[in-house]
Design goal:
This protein is α/β, with parallel strands linked by helices. It has a single domain, classed as Beta-carbonic Anhydrase, Chain A (3-Layer(aba) Sandwich). The chain is about 35% helix and about 15% strand. It is globular and about 50 Å long. Bound molecules: zinc ion.
Length: about 170
Amino acid sequence: MTTSASVPSDSAIDRLVQANERYAADFADADLEGRPALRVAVVACMDARLDVSAALGLNNGEAHVIRNAGGAVTDDVIRSLTISQRRLGTRSVVLVHHTGCGMETLTEDYRTELETEVGQRPAWAVESFRDVDQDVRSSLRRVRTSPFLQHTDDVRGFVYDVKTGRLREIDPA
Ligand code: ZN
């Protein structure tokens, strides 16, 4: 057991596994359906300060939550949303980006940096941005214009303030 700040990652995982034992001991959600009860899919940044379920009052079984760096609407997010809507009955999409996002500190040059370092250029876009409001708007457009989605009339985007815990809705126009 170390007391230094640089805790080895395996001990962090051990903590998670122990937490799961306590969680499973009182598990009461065995009868939940796989189809989200609120028929909502949330696409959010992976930021550690954003507790999506707590911030949106979501209970287990109520929504799909799809997360990645920036909450970017990538092809893979469209893949998940397509399955969410067409196979699992969701109708609404909520996008949650946030203040102080690490993606604001990157540029597409990051791909070149990686290529220089590891000798291979990633196929994926970095999906960095400078203006979080504009990034939410462009993400809203990607969802609304996707040919694969059945329900694009109830799609709303927000910026979560990591200092207040409050959502601010972004006007799509
Ligand atoms: Zn972020």
